[in-house]
Amino acid sequence: MERNHDEEEINPILLDFLDTDDFEEKYKILVATPIMDFDNLLIDNMASSIDVVVEDGDIESRVQDLKNCVRTRSKYETLRFRR
Q1: pTM metric for this prediction
Q2: Quick one: which of 35, 54, 36 has its CA closest to 44?
Q3: How far apart are alpha carbons 62 and 64 in whole angstroms?
Q4: Strand, coil or helix: 46
Q5: Cα gap 4→44, rounded to integer Å
Q6: CB of 65 within 8 A of CB of 30?
Q7: Domain limits of the chain?
Q8: Residue 39: CB partners within 8 Å, gap ≥ 6?
Q9: Which of 13, 19, 44, 57 is deepest in the core (most CB within 10 A)?
Q10: Rounded distance, CA 57 to CA 14, Å?
Q11: What does the alpha-carbon distance between residue 57 and residue 82 come to, in Å, rounded to a whole number?
């Protein structure tokens, strides 16, 4: 099967992130991914998939902001299920 050159491959890190609904797993994916594998598009796509906006800035601070959002949602998810 021949691939259309206009089609971009979907980032496998993004696929893993999208494939899980568990925020603890999403956090683990973020932590396990080397900082050099992130770019602004990946961060924006991950953020939009969980309905958050990560402010512009350098990659490291944006990844940290995304981790903080996911970690907070993970804690909220855990507390919600305990009730």
Answers
A1: 0.84
A2: 54
A3: 5
A4: helix
A5: 25
A6: no
A7: 12-82
A8: 59
A9: 13
A10: 20
A11: 36
